[in-house]
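ok trying this again, last paste got cut off
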Amino acid sequence: MKFEIANTFTDELPADPDLTNTPRQVEAAAYSFVEPRKPTDPKIVHVSSEAAEMLGIGIGELNSENFLNTFSGGRQIENSKSYAMCYGGHQFGSWAGQLGDGRAINLGQVSFKDDSYALQLKGSGQTPYSRGADGLAVLRSSVREHLCSEAMFHLGVPTTRSLSLILTGDDVLRDISYDGNPAYEKGAVVCRVAPSFIRFGNFEIFASRGDIDNLRALTNHTIKHYFSDTYAASNLIEFTKQNYIDFFREVAKRTLTMVIHWQRVGFVHGVMNTDNMSILGLTIDYGPYGWLEPYDSGWTPNTTDRQYKRYRFGNQPQVALWNLLQLANALVSLTEDPEPFEEILSEFGAGFKNRYQTMMQNKLGLFNFQKNDDVIIEDLLELLETTEVDMTIFFRSLSGFIKQDFETETDSGFVELKQSFYDPNAFEGDVKVAWKQWLDNYFIRLEAEKISDAERSDRMNLVNPKYVLRNYMAQLAIDAADGGDYSVIEELYELLKHPYSEQNESNKWFAKRPEWARNKVGCSMLSCSS
C-alpha cells in the first residue's frame, strides 16, 4: 500500500515552529506537526471497501498489517508528516477562541486518479489543541461516525467519508450522560476522508487575531485547490477582491445545498458550531446527530442543546446563515467592502425558501409545479407536527398511494398511512378529519400531474429513502460490537448502501423506533461525549 503524496496544505501554509505536543495557544500557524498515539493492540472492526477503492487501496490490502498500523495510528504514511489543524469557532452562538483538531490528526493528503484526499484519524490522541483532554474516542461514537458517514454518501448528501473503524486495545474514560458517573469504554479510531477538512473556523481564527497575511494565504490556498472556478485561469498569482466575493458566494451555495439535503432526509446535525462547518459544504463531525423519527421541527439530538434547542431540525437553515455571516465577517478583512457579502447573505434566505419548496414538492410527487403547492406543504407539516408521525415511513408510504385504491369515506387505504403513526389510536376524531381533508386535497392536486402513478411512485422513491440510520439501529450495532460481534455493523453498512431500494429481505429495519428506545441513552438524545 503506497500512496502518491500531495500535501498542499502543509507545503503552502505556515507551520507551528513549536514541536512539543502540549495544549497551548498556537499563533501565526495553520497547523502543528504531531504524531498519532500508538495503539496498544489494534484490531480492525470494519472497513468501507468503497472508500478504500476511492483511495486506490486494493481489496487484498485491507487486512494487511500495513493497513492496520497506518490507520490505527501506529505508522506514518511514507513521505508524509502528520499534523493537527489550528482553527477557532463560535460554539452555541458564542466565540470560543482557539479550538483546533483536539482529537483528530491528519495523516496527510494523497492523490489517486486525479483526485486528492485528506486522511484524518479521529481518536488518535492528544494534540496542541486538545485543551487538556486526552484526544481519544470510544467505540460507541466511532461506530456512529463510521456508519453515518457512509450512509449519508449513499443518501446523496454531501459528506465526508469513513475508510475504517479500528479498536485501539486501550480503555477510555468517559461520562456518557454527564452525570458524574464516568466509566471505561473501548477505545477506537476512525479514518475520515475528504478532499479537505478546512472549516469556517480556520478563517475565523486568523481574522480574530488580526493576522490578515495568513488569512489571505489560507483563502488563496482554498480557492486555488477547491474553488478554481471562482478565479480566472490567467490570474494564478494575484487574487482579486472579486475572487474572494465569488469564493464566498460558492461556499454559501454549497452550504445551502447541504442543508436542503438534511431537511429532505430528516437529518439533524446537533452541533452546528462554526468549527463544524466544512468550507466545502460537506457534512462533517458526526457527534450527537440523529434522524427525525416522529416529525418534530423542534427536536435536537444533543443533550447539551436541550434547553435552548439552537440546533433543532427546523432551525438548521437559520443557523447555517448565521454561520455564513461569521465567515463573511472574517473574509471582509480581505476586501474591506461588506456590501457584496451582505447581498450574498440576503440571497441565502430567498434561495432556501425556493429550494425547500421544490424539494418538498418532489417528496410529495408534485413535479408539475402549481402556485398553491405551498399550502399543501404547510398543511402537511402542521399535521405531521401534531400527530407524532414517522417522517421516513410516511413519505415512503405516500409514494405507493393510488387514488382509485383510496376512499376517505370508507377508510380504504388508511391502513398504509397509519403504519407511520406512533399511536394508531390517535387517528380518530378531529385528527382523522384533518388528515382526510388533507388527503382529499392532495389527491385532487395529483390530478394535475401528467405522469402515471407508477412513474410518480418511482420518482418519489428516488428522494424519499426507505432506510436511514436511526439512533436505535446504531445503538444495536454498538451493543453488539461492544460484545465482539461486528455483524450488525456490516449488515447496516450493506443496507444503507442502497437506502432508496426496497430490499424486502431487510424490512425489519423499515420500522418505527421501538418503545424501548424512546428514552434510552444513545437512542433518543446523545451527549458530545466521545
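PB: full thing came through this time. The chain has 16 helices and twelve strands.
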